[in-house]
Design a protein that fits this description.
elongated
């Protein structure tokens, strides 16, 4: 029996949006983990970057535009660096099984973006997620 996530992943546009949101969430989670490991608060990181605490919060929530340059700058401020590894999208899905809670979080974000772009109505998005 297919799950709601499996059905959504059949849609190429959803898979594209899901991949984007997954990477953004993974980067933000990695930064939050680095901050916790190094005992660096949002205010501390903001000072190191000469940014506002609100900007750091938005970055960690996925609201701010996190470019690769921004990611590298923040990692450097935390005394770390990122290494990017590309993998086949199809085989990567099975290898990186995520929890249902995160799947739903990414699904909601992807559907919201599709709704904003006009490719889905709000009702269609709600029906697909059964909210």
């Amino acid at each position: 029996m297919k799950t709601e996530h499996d059905r959504l992943m059949e849609n190429p546009e959803f898979r594209r949006l899901f991949a984007i949101e997954s990477l953004v969430a993974e980067a933000a989670e990695s930064l939050a983990r680095l901050m916790a490991e190094r005992n660096v608060s949002k205010a501390d990181l903001a000072r190191r970057l000469n940014k506002s605490r609100a900007w750091v919060t938005q970055l960690l929530n996925g609201k701010a535009n996190m470019t690769i340059r921004t990611l590298a700058e923040v990692a450097h401020a935390l005394g770390a660096e990122f290494k990017l590894v590309a993998q086949d999208a199809i085989s990567g899905v099975g290898k990186r099984r995520q929890t249902r809670r995160l799947d739903l979080q990414y699904a909601r974000a992807a559907l919201k973006e599709a709704e904003q772009k006009g490719t889905l109505t709000h009702e269609q998005a709600r029906k697909r997620l059964r909210l």
